[in-house]
């Protein structure tokens, strides 16, 4: 007999929501360990540029000319052949590090030179994006064979709705989580960590509780004990700036946030963000797990290191603005979309946000057109105040040349998307619970 099963009180009652967040452990580094199993358990950091094909083999042949090296021999490479952090010079940063390396205090975003002081013996490897993408697809398809309602949240993480999956309620989701973990390991050779909770917000935090190779189950009644002691930064959507401002008011933990009146939060953080802060501190989040669907829009946004002013920081702001437009255009082209609504989003230094958009008479994926139209939108907002975040969005998307998109000349009625369609944003920090700002 397995643990508490939360059977519905009445056969027709819906089952309690159980949402899982799954995140691969030390992902880019784990991918390298598949290629070089001899590095298992050793401190390995990823960073310092892209892999060049044949580079390793060429160096091997040069160093050990007496042996006949081929692709299949990578697991035979002696440890002393691998580059060490100690010999690194440059300005690169760590992309990720194995858990063995993290014990020395090194981790994502740390400068490689600084990391070299903490753990000079760590092995330094570049990232292999092709292999990362292959494994990413593989672990996601493994999940889909078991649980069909999965939301892709990037290269190494997903949300999964356990609620109605057979066995998804057993031990609060632990049984299904274990099965998924095991299946992913069998398919890829890499471990992952899973948090199962009443919603996405809590599940995302819970997947970190027992990393690596861990499972963590959170119930609604665990809010006070497991969530409230955490720093506000653990909430996906509270960035460094918001955190700093919260700290300024003496709010360090999610519990301290929950203790504030919603009115006070709205007064200090604006209506949208203030309300959202209150909701998340009480563990509330109704966002559904959205399965793959046609995006209704694509956007890019960035939060500035320091708040910028439209006139005084004109050059810097202009450059960022252009880059965002180019990135959105790239995203559109890469995914094969074009759109006709172009918009901007601004967040001021007081956290208030505004958006403006314009619909043009043709579909575009052209950076210059997007930049021009977005520039006109920018003229329609108050630019006397300092800006902390700037975003560019292209909406009303069609996929030219596909069955559900018009072949040529584009027609607007094909832009209608299913109700489950979501906005695709490539910026992690837009994974926010608060609705699109208007
Ligand atoms: P994460 O899931 O944040 O980190 P991780 O998988 O390496 O480690 P953890 O066990 O804590 O989950 O990110 C997934 C991959 O994304 C990571 O392996 C490398 C890449 N990445 C970047 O390219 N830049 C970054 O700033 C971070 C944080 C990750
Ligand atoms: Mg990860
Ligand atoms: Mg991740």
Automatic annotation (TrEMBL):
This is DNA polymerase IV. It catalyses: DNA(n) + a 2'-deoxyribonucleoside 5'-triphosphate = DNA(n+1) + diphosphate. Binds 2 magnesium ions per subunit. Its main location: cytoplasm. Residues 420-431 have a biased composition (Basic and acidic residues). One of its GO terms (molecular function) is damaged DNA binding. It comes from the Bacteria. It is an enzyme of class 2 (transferase). The active site is at residue 157. The keyword Repeat does not apply. It is found in: Cytoplasm. Its EC number is 2.7.7.7. HAMAP family: DNApol_IV (MF_01113). Poorly processive, error-prone DNA polymerase involved in untargeted mutagenesis. Copies undamaged DNA at stalled replication forks, which arise in vivo from mismatched or misaligned primer ends. These misaligned primers can be extended by PolIV. Exhibits no 3'-5' exonuclease (proofreading) activity. May be involved in translesional synthesis, in conjunction with the beta clamp from PolIII. It comes from Hydrogenophaga taeniospiralis CCUG 15921. One of its GO terms (biological process) is error-prone translesion synthesis. Keywords: Cytoplasm, DNA damage, DNA repair, DNA replication, DNA-binding, DNA-directed DNA polymerase, Magnesium, Metal-binding, Mutator protein, Nucleotidyltransferase, Transferase. Residues 400-438 are annotated as: Disordered.
